Amino acid sequence: MEILKNKIKLAGLLIIMGMVAGILSISPSVDSVNYLTEAAANFNQVIMSALFQFILFLMYLGFAIVLYPIIKKYNKSLALGFLSFRIIAGVVLLIGTVVLLSILVLSQEYAENTLENLRVLEALGNVLKTTRDYTNHVFMVFVLSIGNLMLYVLFLKSKLIPKWLSVWGLLGGILSIIASTLLLFKIIDVITVEYLVLNVPTALFEIVLGFWLLLKGFSKEHIISVSYE
Q: What is d(CA 145, CA 139) in angstroms, rounded to the nearest whole number?
């Protein structure tokens, strides 16, 4: 039982560490309108963003790996679905990291090239920038949210965490999917009040869930009932 409690605490810690890594992976210079000049000028900051994005990938994957052996006892199909979508989300996140570094390389080329080549680099830069936005803020969020919804349905059915917390997670996941859908159809942009507001419930939920697992863990009575099966 003590090993189980430690695994649950580790899962909570991974969520919190993932939130920190996610914040540190933000790259203002690449998100800027003048990213072709600012990325190269802020080389170290972009490299650190890429590094923390890779760490975020490890946190995402680690959380799923730690949690899967525990939650599969409650509903194997939902647990497997959560694990599968979390792995896919991690792969998409890695692709986004590679694109981020590609933008940095392109920015360096842009700073060193002659005027006659700048239009080609600008066109390529727009393609990479759009690819990064769709990869990080649309498809990765889609896949991650679908997997998370499976996890929160499992939580709701198993009562491992309070009902209000599971419902919060479900609503937050749906809002995040809506935000990414609006972004996909260019109804809103990435750095806008609308996009941020739609994603705030998910961000707050993950902070609360992380600390809940770290400090309180799962419902003791349900862990004990499953452990004796």
A: 10
